[in-house]
Amino acid sequence: MSASANLGRMFMDEMHGRGPSKSMADQLADIKELQSKVSGIVLSNNSFSARNGINLSRGDVANLAGRWTALFVGKACDLECKFCPQPPKPSLEDDIVNKTGVTTSFNHVGSLDEISIVVGKACIDNRIDAVGISGGEPLLYLDRIARVLEFIKTMSPNTYVYLYTNGTKLNQGTAKELASFGIDEVRIDLAASNFSKLSLKALENASSWFPRVVVESPSLKDTFEKFSKHKCKIVDSGIQQINLCEMVINKYNAHHYVNEPYYIFNPYRKGGGMELDYEHFDKIESFDRLVPTWSRPQAYRVMDMFSDVRSRLTIHDISQGVHFKSEAPF
Ligand code: SF4
Questions:
Q1: Does residue 75 fall inside a structural domain?
Q2: Residues spanned by the domain of 78
Q3: Alpha carbon of 230 to those of 81, 107, 199: distances in Å?
Q4: In a domain, 252, yes or no
Q5: Torsion (CA) 119, 125, 127, 128 in degrees, nearest 10
Q6: Cα of 89 to ligand 1 centre, how many Å?
Q7: 185-234: pLDDT as tens digits
Q8: Structural domain count, the chain
């Protein structure tokens, strides 16, 4: 085990030793209370997801239905976010030279061409409706994105393909290339660069470059304050949706969150929302996820703040529960 993984394990043990601040049942009851206060809210996936607004991306519709996959085109990234749940990143050079491979969110691992075929086949077989291209920072791998998109769009033109980015490399040049590949949507994580000038500039122009633009950021402790500070810019940019994702603490980021209150999310535990049956019995422990209690409530503060523009900008709360699927779609 590497030194950083060891350190992560130590913090995780310490957090478990300290014990959760709240039970999952109490946390979910608090979230339901927050949901009950939003007029016109739309709940889905057993309240693990909720939105205020009329318009949801085809990517999220597919995700909520379990008909979606993420495709991680490379592991390198130009940022080091405190909240990043991914293992330490290789340099771009190492990643490319060593061909560390491409993966999907359903644990397929292989070369770019092998994974493109697996995903392309799932699209043709009508098992998935959308593919989210992710990394690392995927814009470091424009040539890979071009190949994946060409492959998927040729095999299955109706598959909705979108891209996650931290926004720092999104400029007129990269946008032009991306748009020429036929990307349907771009999702900018403003929190990754701490709402940097570069990512806000990208956001300002993105709606003129792509058919659809979404802000997708983790729900962090200062999320409400940050979105409040930049609300005018975000609304004026003309984007249609903000996704706020419940954060998870794991061995890679735990050392930043060791004193934070948390609860253990596990849908297979009593009160977790999914039926606890024999099939899931062995998953009770292994599916434990440590989640800060302050994360998901931030989304409801942001929903309230943006409620005056809900007819054109949807705020979407995505909890850890959305990521638990009973079975992989391919
Ligand atoms: S931008 Fe994304 S991949 Fe890169 S460090 Fe931040 S969270 Fe991790």
A1: yes
A2: 56-239
A3: 20, 37, 12
A4: no
A5: 50
A6: 9
A7: 999 999 999 999 999 999 999 999 999 999 999 999 999 999 999 999 99
A8: 1
